[in-house]
Amino acid sequence: MVFLIVLGLFAAAVVPSLIAFWVLPRSRPLLRYALAVALFALLVSPSFLAGGILALPVPFGAVLVTSAVNFQLRIVPITLLQWPAWHAVAFPITALIGALLFRKGAA
Question: Residue range 35-63: average pLDDT?
């Protein structure tokens, strides 16, 4: 059950980057491509949400949304500082995946 929830969170995190890619005008392909890849990397990068003695894998977008909804933006830097090596690798790899994913539509 937890797997399906986490999978749903990752699927929901992809939606804003797809919307940005489709909504932005095709006359500015570089801006459209860069914004879609940046949103994809920011929202879809895997992260961890600490909960007591357990860390739940969630997309970084879920951390951003929960901290914004609860008006506790201090959660974002705390999450980044808890696993700095993980995030240093996760963000660039997710950006590379996003670049490969959106490359075909940007041309």
Answer: 80
